[in-house]
Amino acid sequence: MKLKLCVSLLAVLLLSAVSPYAQENAPKVDVFAGYSYVQANPGVTGVDSFHLHGGNASVGYNLTSWLGGVADFGGYTNGNVLNTQTSGTFSTYLFGPRVSYRHDARITPFGQVLFGAVHANAAALGTPNTQNAFAMTAGGGVDYRLLDHFAIRPFQAEYLMTRFGEGTLGTRTQNNLRVSTGFFFRF
After folding, report:
1. What predicted TM-score, i.e. pTM, was given to this entire model?
2. Domain that holds residue 153
3. CATH assignment at residue 173
4. Number of domains in the chain
5. What's the 3-state SS for the chain?
6. In this predicted model, what pLDDT tens digit does every residue of 75-126 receive, in sequence order?
């Protein structure tokens, strides 16, 4: 099963790489900005999962028509900004590769795996201290080109793994979901 999946993915990448459309119309740089939602599952005893709303921005550089690198930055809050005792904030700083399938003139599906860091204040974690931790995302989305240099991203969905410390339990994995939508410019 895994071998079939790997062979299929390789075939898609090779077809995308040799497609005349892909070679001619892949932007060298794209800049994304949009709304982002995180379903945070802290896994800390006594702290239920919670919702964070905010935004993320990314800059992508396409090495080929199908392979590029991405720098992604996000900022989130639980919405209770005025009450600093319970206001949770969360920031991500992620970098990694993106694979795009550019076979259609308007629609470009993509997948990416990003690695980096996450910062959360004490209220976001239900702990007495702010923390910085390892973070990773894996997922993808679809871009829809409206004009030559302007496109929208109707959806992007990713698994977001964080590794915050949980008091006496030590560092543990938190399994989160991140969903984004927005627009981007293609250069």
Report:
1. 0.81
2. 2-186
3. 2.40.160.20
4. 1
5. CHHHHHHHHHHHHHHHHHCHHHHHHCCCEEEEEEEEEEEECCCCCCCCCEEEEEEEEEEEEECCCCEEEEEEEEEEECCCCCCCCCCCEEEEEEEEEEEECCCCCCEEEEEEEEEEEEEECHHHHCCCCCEEEEEEEEEEEEEEEEECCEEEEEEEEEEEEECCECHHHCECCEEEEEEEEEEEEEC
6. 998 865 444 455 778 899 999 999 999 988 899 999 999 999 999 887 666 6
